[in-house]
Design goal:
By secondary structure, this protein is of the alpha/beta class. The chain contains eight helices and six strands, in the order αβαβαβαβααβαβα. The strands form two sheets. Strands 4-3-5-6 form a four-stranded parallel beta sheet, sandwiched between helices. A two-stranded parallel sheet has the order 1-2. The two termini are about 30 Å apart.
C-alpha cells in the first residue's frame, strides 16, 4: 500500500536535516498519514499536511461551528489521514472535493503540466459555495491540497469564512 513510500520520505527528511534544513513540510496533504513516523525520524519540526490545522481551527470557532475541508477528491480522504493530522472524532468536519468538477481534478490527478487557472478558480468557488450553502454551520475552511492556496483569498471572499491552507501553516 501507500506505506511502502514511508522509508523514502524518511530518507529524504533525514537528508534535508543533514543539509541544515530547519523544518520540513510536504507537497501533498494526504501525507498526514506519515506524520507520526516522519516527526519521529528527525529532530526538526515536520508538518506533513494542512489537515494538522483542523484541530487548531476548530478550537478557534464558537460552539456549534464545524470545520469545512476542501480536497481534490473527497472519497480519497480517509480515517488514517485524519488520525495522522490529529483530527479526533470529537472534532466535527465536513468534507467537499473537487471531483464534481473537471479542470483542477484532471490536472492534479492525471499529472498534467498545463491548467486553465481561471476555470480552476471558478471550480474552487463553486465547490466552496456549495459546501457552505449545504452546511451553514461551517465556521472556517481548511484547504487540504497544497495546490489550492492560490484560491484561498477568493474562497474566503466568496464564503465569508476564514480559510487556512499549507501556506498559512508554514
Amino acid at each position: 500500500g501507500q506505506r511502502a513510500l514511508l522509508p523514502t520520505f524518511i530518507e529524504g527528511a533525514r537528508a534535508l536535516e543533514r543539509e541544515g534544513v530547519r523544518a520540513i513540510t510536504t507537497n501533498c496533504g494526504f501525507l498526514a498519514m506519515y506524520q507520526t513516523d516522519m516527526a519521529a525520524a528527525v529532530s526538526i519540526p515536520v508538518f506533513t499536511s494542512s489537515l494538522m490545522l483542523v484541530p487548531l481551527v476548530y478550537r478557534m470557532l464558537p460552539p456549534g461551528k464545524v470545520v469545512g475541508i476542501m480536497t481534490v477528491d473527497a472519497s480519497s480522504l480517509r480515517p488514517d489521514h485524519f488520525a495522522g493530522a490529529g483530527i479526533t472524532r470529537d472534532i466535527p468536519t465536513v468534507v467537499a472535493g473537487l471531483e464534481t468538477e473537471k479542470e483542477f481534478t484532471r490536472v492534479m490527478l492525471d499529472n498534467q503540466l498545463e491548467m486553465d487557472v481561471e476555470i480552476a478558480r471558478e471550480e474552487h468557488l463553486t465547490v466552496a459555495r456549495r459546501l457552505v450553502d449545504a452546511h451553514p454551520e461551517i465556521g472556517a475552511i481548511v484547504l487540504e491540497c497544497t495546490n489550492m492556496p492560490p484560491y484561498r483569498g477568493d474562497i474566503q471572499a466568496a464564503t465569508g469564512r476564514p480559510v487556512f491552507d499549507i501556506t498559512t501553516l508554514v
